[in-house]
Each structure stands twice: as C-alpha cells, then as structure tokens.
Write a structure and sequence with these properties.
Blueprint: H1 20-30, E1 60-68, H2 70-73, E2 90-107, E3 110-124, E4 133-141, E5 144-152, E6 160-161, H3 167-176, E7 180-187, E8 192-193, E9 219-220, E10 223-230, E11 234-236, E12 240-241, E13 244-245, E14 247-249, E15 254-261, H4 284-287, E16 296-297, H5 299-304, H6 330-338, E17 342-344
Parallel strand pairs: 1-15, 3-6, 10-16
Antiparallel strand pairs: 1-4, 2-3, 2-5, 2-7, 5-11, 5-14, 7-10, 8-9, 12-13, 15-17
C-alpha cells in the first residue's frame, strides 16, 4: 500500500470519457454493420466472434470497440498541471501496437451463462480514431447485467494483424510472442542523460559539467528514442465504470462498450492502488537508462539498470504494488507498468491478473 503522502502529489486531468448519450449514438451507428473487422495476416477474414448463449432469450447484442487514450494518439506534453510530464520531457509515440481481445462476458446473476469472442487483434493504437475501433460482436445475450473481461495476449497465440500494423512488425511480434511494441521519442531542448556510473558506457561522449543527485556526470542528450518489444500478457476484469459492473442488455437491444488502453503508465512514479489523480509523470529515469548516450534506450540497457542504481528513483517514487516482484531491473519496471494499462469505458477500472488496481 502507498503511504499517505501519495495523495499529496499532483492531480491528473482525465483523458476523454464518453457520455452516455455518445455511447448510445455510437451503438446506433454500429447496428447492422460488420464492425470493420481486420483481415488476418494470411489475408482471410476472421471467424464470426458472435456467441448465442440462450436461443430462447431475447437476442441482445454487445459491440466491443478498442479505444486509445489520447496520451497515445497525441503524445504527452511537458508541463506543471494536468496529465503532463513534470520534469521537462515531452513524449511522442510513433507506434503503440497492442495485442488485445479474448472478450469474456458472464451474466452477473448466473456465472454459468457466458459468451466469448476469443479473437486477438494486433492494432497500432496511434491510428485509432477518437470514436474507437469496432472489433468484436457478441449476439444472443439475454436481458440482464453482465460482467466484462478481456485480455492483452501474445502475438504468437494466433493473433490477427490489423491493417495499421505492417507485416514485418507483426512477424517480429509473433516471433517474440510480444504483447506490445511501443516506439517513440523523448525530447527536451536542454535534455541530458546521467547514466549510473556502475553501468555507464559513454565512450567518447563529453560530460557537460552537470551531475545528478548521486554525483554522476551528465551528457547532453536532447532527443532520445526507444523501441520496446514487450511480452506482458495480462487478464483484465471484471471491469466496472463508476462502481457499476460491466454492462446491461435490455430486451433485444444493442449495447456498445470500450476496452481502453492508457499510454502514460510507463511514466507514473509508481503503482498507485488508490486515486490515479495522485500520480506524477516523470521521464528522466528513462533518459538516464541511455547508458552509452547514443540517443536510444534499448531493452539491453534497461536490463542492466537496477532501480536502486537510478538517482531519479528517489522519494518521489513508490514502487510498492507492482504486479512484478521483485523488480530486479528497469525492464521489469517497464513490463510491470504496461500490465496496468487496461481500462474500461475510458477511465473505468479493471482488476488485472486478479489484482484490484483502482484508478478513479
């Protein structure tokens, strides 16, 4: 659990959350269409994801869309207030591919009544519009309230490639059974890297005369790229929005819900178990993992850095509550953070891997 001091941290301006009227309008617009399902990598259409759970009941329909938080599509600015990075860095994502699906719903009053859409899709979230991307449809759902679950899975588990993902990228993800491919760039006009001396390999780079809190030399490094192929399979659910579980089916009506992926958890100063508004977003730690100061942070470098090595991981960070323990290195830290990014209907909450992880 976090200390009481967590709640004194800066607040978060929440990413977009759709109103009830907007959801109903989208549901109406989707009725009768095929949802724009992507082709499989082999070029064939995916199988029908529908599942009739009770042929004698009113045939309600659930459409599930994939939604990207605007921190993914718009990047994350530097600043002092709102959902920004507080230590001067800006972040822009070139691609943010996620493998997502395995939709599983259960009637809240009878766990034996269930339906699923097991398809996994590899989608680049940078390309997803504000309206979301319709991918899954379940039919024949009886009237009542349903629990909603989904997963972020491995590309090697029979995932379908969306057109937003180039074939070579998808092949790479399949070979590594990756769940995410996140690439982008940190930038700051006066940016610098101050790698831990124990593992730093600056070569011919010349220190700029600055030092970090540990007295380690810093090097000018205003633009730092990263490309992270991450295996982090995670189950999310049962999900809720404003403490109301799942979704409701009324008669033979149609309902639309969104599986939402957040893009800023990588820069959280820990793993909050309370209000997400208490987090601070910081990026200097990632800049300091550029051990050879070549303007690129790699997995190999992250695996060489222990959390205790970084001067930036100071009292501002609370590492308790991580889904991976112990955190042996900063690659573990990155993997743990992306395992917390799955949400529901924008800011709705989904326990991950059976762990409650509230983000109000």
């Amino acid at each position: 659990m976090f200390s009481a001091s967590w709640n004194t941290l800066t607040s978060r301006a929440p990413p977009r959350r759709w109103s009830t009227s907007r959801w109903l309008a989208l549901a109406a617009s989707l009725a009768g269409c095929d949802g724009g399902a992507p082709d499989r990598d082999a070029g064939t259409a995916p199988p029908d994801a529908g599942s009739a759970v009770d042929s004698g009941a009113a045939g309600g329909t659930l459409s599930v869309i994939l939604e990207a938080e605007d921190t993914i599509t718009d990047g994350i600015a530097a600043g002092d207030t709102g959902a920004v990075i507080r230590d001067g860095w800006m972040v822009a994502f070139d691609s943010y591919v996620v493998v997502i699906g395995d939709i599983d719903v259960h009637l809240a009053t009878d766990e034996g009544v269930e339906a699923e859409a097991p398809e996994l899709y590899a989608v680049d979230l940078v390309s997803v519009s504000e309206a979301g991307l319709p991918l899954w449809t379940l039919t024949g759902l009886q009237t009542g309230r349903w629990e909603f679950n989904y997963a972020i899975g491995g590309a090697g588990d029979g995932a379908t490639r969306h057109d937003s993902v180039p074939e070579p990228v998808f092949a790479e993800m399949v070979a590594e059974d990756a769940t995410y491919l996140i690439s982008g760039e940190l930038s700051r006009p006066d940016g610098q890297s101050c790698p831990p001396s124990a593992v730093a390999t600056p070569g011919a780079a010349v220190a700029n005369g600055n030092t970090n809190a540990n007295g380690e030399p810093c090097y000018d490094n205003p633009t730092i790229g990263f490309r992270l192929l991450i295996p982090a399979e995670t189950a999310f659910g049962p999900c809720e929005i404003d403490e109301v579980p799942g979704f409701a089916i009324t008669g033979g009506g149609a309902t639309t819900v969104a599986a939402t992926v957040h893009g800023d958890h990588l820069f959280f100063n820990g793993f909050p178990e309370g209000d997400e508004g208490g987090v601070t977003r910081l990026a200097q730690w990632l800049a300091d993992c550029d051990l050879n100061v070549d303007g690129e942070v790699t997995r190999a470098e992250l695996e060489l850095v222990a959390p205790a090595d970084l001067a930036e991981l100071d009292a501002r960070f609370q590492l308790g509550g991580s889904p991976i323990t112990p955190l042996q290195d900063m690659w573990d830290y990155v993997t743990a953070q992306v395992k917390t990014q799955g949400h529901f209907q924008g800011e709705g909450e989904c326990p991950f891997d059976g762990l409650a992880h509230m983000h109000d």
